[in-house]
Specification:
The chain is mainly beta and 178 residues long. The chain contains one helix and eleven strands, in the order H-E-E-E-E-E-E-E-E-E-E-E. The longest helix is centred in the N-terminal third of the chain and has 24 residues, at 2-25. It is globular, with a radius of gyration of 22 Å. It starts with a helix and ends in a 6-residue tail after the last strand.
């Protein structure tokens, strides 16, 4: 009789160990603000009212890449964007491509997506609420754009502001940039 219980106990113990091992392998990696780099690492992160916003490799809508940048030389306009896995979005439009100089952002937006109701709240920079950006790298040949940013944006419907701070990006320029 002892062998039967030993077998059951051993089977239970092995099952428990395998379950714990699988559970530890499947944990999501803790999100942290990415380092400031200039190598085209496709990183994007900031704080939205002290809540971490980080590109995770998931998200995106309407066939857009989840992260990236586009440059339009005709309009002299740079567009940098990223989505989170919850499909929240930050986009920055800029018209000054001068490396090493802090300047005002032309336009920026933060969109908070509500998965339950499938609605979005759009926060935009305003004339009285602007932001700043500093380009560390703008390399059209190697298709890399890197820098830091911050801005305050307003939901004009609910009259609510969001402060985006400690922003950084190191993304590849789209091959469709011209």
């Amino acid at each position: 009789m002892k062998n039967k219980y030993d077998f059951l106990y051993s089977s239970w113990l092995i099952t428990l160990l395998i379950s714990l091992l699988l559970a530890s392998c499947c944990k999501e990696q803790e999100l942290i603000l990415p380092e400031e780099t200039t190598i085209g690492a496709n990183t994007f992160g900031c704080y939205v009212d002290n809540e971490l916003f980080v590109y995770t490799g998931k998200g995106g809508v309407f066939g857009l890449e989840n992260i990236g940048a586009r440059y339009d030389s005709t309009l002299n306009q740079l567009y940098i964007y990223a989505y989170t896995k919850e499909n929240d979005y930050i986009g920055i439009f800029d018209t000054i491509m001068e490396v090493g100089r802090k300047h005002l952002i032309y336009y920026a937006a933060y969109i908070k997506y509500n998965n339950i109701y499938r609605t979005s709240t759009i926060y935009r920079t305003q004339e009285e609420l602007q932001g700043e950006m500093y380009l560390s790298k703008f390399d059209r040949e190697n298709k890399i754009v890197s820098g830091i940013f911050m801005f305050t944006a307003k939901d004009s419907i609910n009259n609510e502001n969001k402060t985006i701070s400690n922003g950084r990006f190191d993304v590849k320029l789209s091959p469709f940039s011209y």
